[in-house]
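Request from the bench team (R.T.):
"We need a structural guess for the complex before ordering more guanosine-5'-triphosphate. Sequence and SMILES attached. Just send the tokens back."

Command: build protein-guanosine-5'-triphosphate structure.
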Amino acid sequence: MDVQVAVVTGSGRGAVAVVRVWGPGAGAVADAVFRPVRGGSLLETPVGRLRLGRAGAGLGDEVVAVRLDDGGGPVAELQCHGGVAAVESVVEALVQAGARRVDQTVDLLPPGGDRIEADAMADLARAPTLRSAEILLEQARGALRRELGGISCRESAGSDISARLAAIAALAARGAIGTRLLSGWKVVIAGRPNVGKSRLFNGLAGFDRSIVHPMPGVTRDVVTFRTAVAGWPVELCDTAGQCETDDPIEALGIDRARRESGIADLMVLVLDRSRPLAPADRRLLAAPTTIPRLIVANKSDLAVAWPLGEIDEASAGVLTVSAETGEGLDPLIAAIGDRLVPDPPATGAGVPFRHEHLEILARAGKRLEAGDVAGLNRALEDLLGKARSR
Ligand SMILES: Nc1nc2c(ncn2[C@@H]2O[C@H](COP(=O)(O)OP(=O)(O)OP(=O)(O)O)[C@@H](O)[C@H]2O)c(=O)[nH]1
Ligand SMILES: [Mg+2]
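Reply to R.T.: structure attached below.
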């Protein structure tokens, strides 16, 4: 058998593509194209250890390389950015080194992997950010399977029922993150007119998506943009400034702003630090919120018109930023990330990433609570079972 190469995840769509080489001599072929950032060659690297380097023509693309041994022969994988050019350049280099290209097939799933891994691979191809991709890649490598396997009990569960229930609860908590890895979180930027919402939105988006203007009432409709905030996929929403108005179009925009604020995961309430707080600011601060919020005092590059202590939230922390100069944007980005995902999964942790996983976990937890170990195993078998769904 010769050395073969295939793109395991669909190229061109996701943040990360996995290029797999297998067959006798696969390690040497991968080694020939992989240029480590530092340290010895890929062949000298123990199986399973991830290495950072470059591959491809010229300077090449940044890749993570790993040798795997599945018992069925040597396998190596190069994970690269998902863009078509990057993937093609890595595949081409491997072909030059002697591999034969074959079409992607689901049989290229990780050794021993099946449904969970297949689903993780499918989602990986659609991962909008590298952080999402990293977590899905871990699941494709068996992180979730391993943890589920640890919970299912062959023998009588005995005294460790509470430990297993805690493990199920921990997985379910991570599932709240896992099920958002593709769809992301919604963050709405709200405040009264002219406080700098659109400027801040553009700063977070990284380019001028929304119109910024000295005249109040510029943003009329909700402007959205999908981006990565602290590595998480986020839909940012810029909204119309909230105030009393007789203008029917502005009023419609304000209605929409309120609606968005009701369904978002987080509100960033922007105040203008360079002007005294207006009644509209105070109304917004006092309004009951159904979602978590961050208070941002913008225009910190100008002379300060009010002390932070003037608002009740001061003790909880108001973020001072200048959307104009960019000062304070990095801490704001970190704060948004912390609010959306206060407890990110550790590297290698099992993360349920589909609602179906959470439903099965809930069922398994109920069975375990009832002392029904056979029922627990049956529920988990739905996920762990070898029946391939695709
Ligand atoms: N000096 C300074 N000016 C700012 C800052 N942020 C925004 N501005 C200015 O404030 C004005 C209003 O900014 P926008 O971002 O359009 O404000 P907005 O809150 O979106 O306003 P509406 O869409 O009308 O509700 C513009 O002239 C901006 O250049 C800042 O941090 N510092
Ligand atoms: Mg605006």
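Two things stood out. The chain has three domains: 4-108, 143-179+352-384, 185-340. The first strand starts at residue 4 and ends at 7.
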